[in-house]
Amino acid sequence: MMSNAQSTAAAVPVVKRRRNLTPLWLLTPAGVIIIALVVVPLIFLVFTSFTDFNQKTLFTG
To answer: N or C: which end of the chain has fewer CB within 10 A?
Structure first.
């Protein structure tokens, strides 16, 4: 004989849990700003390290 808990557990269908992506969408603007503040200076650093910049060309172009 089945207990009441077993029969109700079997009657409830198994629903696949969908991952809630709302927190990631809310963090996207902050992530874009942080990436821009880190990546842009690194790209500029790599660019200037392979060029012949000195103090004169830095201010006069």
So the answer is: N
Q: How confident is the model at residue 19 (pLDDT cuts 50, 70, 90)?
A: confident
What is 12-56 written as a DSSP string? SPP-PPPPP-HHHHHHHHHHHHHHHHHHHHHHHHHHHHTS---HH
Give the predicted TM-score (pTM) of the model.
0.46
Spatial separation of the C-alpha atoms in residues 41 and 47, rounded to whole Å? 10
- The H or E element spanning position 61 is none
Torsion of the alpha carbons at 28, 33, 39 and 42, rounded to the nearest 10: -160
